[in-house]
Amino acid sequence: MSNNLNITARFTVRAMRAACGVAFAGFVSVAAFAQSPLYDESSDLEKLAQHSNSRMHYLRLSSPLRDKPQIWEGLEEVVEALPTSSRDYVRLERLILEKSVAELQNRVAVGELTYEEITRFFIARIHAIETDDARYLNAVIALNPDAVDAAREADRRRSEVQPSPESFFGLPVLLKDNIGLAGIPTTAGAAVLSTNVTADAFVTERLKRNGAIILGKANLSEWAYFFCTACPSGYSAMGGQTLNPYGRLEFNTGGSSAGSGAAIAGGLAVAAVGSETAGSILSPSSANSLVGLKPTTGSISRSGVIPISSTLDTLGPMGRSVADIVALFNAMTGYDQADRAMPLLSEDLHLSLRRVDIQGLRLGFPRALQSEPLLVEAVSKLEAAGAVVVPVDFAPPDLPEEVQFMGAEMVIELTAYLANWANTQVPIAGISELLAYNSQALNERAPYGQALVEMMAEFERLLNDDRSAALAELERLRGMVRDQTGGYLVDLFAENQLDVLVRINNSGASAGAFANYPALTIPAGYRDNGQPLGITLYAPSFQEQLLIDLGVVLESAGPVRRSPEGY
User: With contact defined as beta carbons under 8 Å apart, do 180 and 200 qualify?
Assistant: First the structure.
């Protein structure tokens, strides 16, 4: 390994996965993103400092860079017209909250609701929750001022389109704030991208073309959680600390699609789009008792999405049921010739809610997880439906080269994004300039430090000094992690003749990412303290439909998800 890269050895995969908050002596929280004039986040931070889980030792809850009213600028009339105490709000809440895509489409079809009413309700609800000192989630980073007009247009076109109950037409969706949406900054939660008003990402265009209403942007772990090693999941400088509605000061949100997870669990939209490099859909979906699909890289376009790794990155749907994520997935797909990871397909990928016989399907169930009663119960439902449970051992390698590889790819991919997609007002062109920019005001821009940016700056220096050596090092890292981490999972499937592997929450995400295996996480229940737990299923590349089939079987055996108390 080049001496220029020795610094990366300090950042192991385990350290990245266990990234946690560290209390900095003398740090003073600045609550510019305050909830109400009487709210003082210091008392909540004091409680969190005593938490048994060090990852909950947050340094701040509010964003130091934006006031919360900026979220609904241009939508004040919508908020004022639908106060939560009004009869109309109560009527809409009864008809909309926690309802599925199919239920909402059916109610629109019979005239009980309009798409405009659904959109107005969610805007009013976001305002109500995000201004409540005891319930705010910091899950939404921006709202789309054109959302109501788009919903009104969907109402006008409904008789022409005649959407089916499985269609996402006319329904509000949140995008993780690393996905381009014209007219609203795409920030990845970072201060340096606060002026990054750019074009629609390819997926955003597809959603609009299919009639979905882009409600706004969800908060996230800054830079999709590839930024620091001491930061908690769900924190960004632009959005503050995302909180988990199942336990705001008890449970973390998972990362990096934290806002997407917390927002849907808290009833702030019908569904959301997340992104994943290695665990960032699976983690917040399971932490927030949601269904989340991490598709095969290459099945959904990444054009216009702020990148980490072109090898691993993918987008995916997050929702309250398998049916809802199928509807959203189908509204997102389409061939993008600009995305080199996409295979040339004869037709768009399309998932269905078919009911199939899973008799004889071989389900790998790791022995180490067979003491988890919620997982045992979920697996028993699949076994009762005909699946063959195969006990396996699961111990993939834990390589520091995984983080090194992702960092090296981000140096190259982010430079390309900044050159080809970012607004010209963005004041950086690469990683070293990002490092310098944040260093000018660490308390505001990087309160938990920026260790992974420092690591990446080392690779960028090597790239500038000796490009051929840097690219050779990148290829060495790619080969190592593909063969050892991804190869481990491929070999496990082959040796045990598996169709699917069972894991818990986002466990196994790195192996799945480097093997390019899709994964589906589904609520499996709740621990005694109320913390959600998910059963996660992995299958070989482009076997998303198999995962959906299993999800349908699990949900038909009795859905276990419940809404968070107080939301």
Answer: yes
pLDDT band at 456 (very low <50, low <70, confident <90, very high): very high
Q: Write out the E strands in 359-422.
A: 362-366, 388-392
176 tagged catalytic:
yes
- 256 a catalytic residue: yes
Active site residue 294: no
Q: 231 in helix, strand or coil?
A: coil
CA dihedral (434, 436, 438, 442) in degrees, to 10, reads 160
Choose the catalytic residue: 257, 260, 280, 285: 280
Say if residue 418's pLDDT is above 70: yes
Mean of the per-residue pLDDT values for the chain? 93
pLDDT tens-digit readout, 280-327:
999 999 999 999 999 999 999 999 999 999 999 999 999 999 999 999
Residue of 134, 556, 99 lying closest to 327 (CA atoms): 99
Q: Which two tokens stand for residue 541?
A: 């590349």
Distance CA 126, CA 140 (A): 8
Q: What share of the chain is helix, strand, coil (3-state, %, to 5)?
A: 40, 15, 45
Contact indicator for 292, 282 with CB cutoff of 8 Å: yes
pTM given for the model:
0.93
Q: Which CATH number does 12-23+34-344+396-468+504-556 carry?
A: 3.90.1300.10
User: Vertex 43, ends 231 and 18: CA angle to 5°?
Assistant: 20
Q: Are 440 and 414 in contact (CB under 8 A)?
A: no
* Cα distance between residue 448 and residue 446, in whole Å: 5
Q: Which of 62, 256, 286, 510 is catalytic?
A: 256
CB under 8 A, 24+ apart: contacts of 440-444 = 441/191, 443/27, 443/30, 443/64, 444/30, 444/64, 444/65, 444/191, 444/237
Q: What is the mean pLDDT of residues 350-374?
A: 96
Q: Which of 99, 176, 217, 381 is catalytic?
A: 176
Where exactly are the structural domains of the chain?
12-23+34-344+396-468+504-556
| Cβ-based neighbour number of residue 193 at 10 Å | 28
Sequence-separated (6 or more) residues with CB below 8 Å from residue 334: 202, 206, 301, 348
- Nearest Cα neighbor of 63 from 177, 198, 197, 214 is 177
pLDDT in tens, 41-58: 999 999 999 999 999 999
- Distance CA(526)–CA(374), nearest Å, equals 8
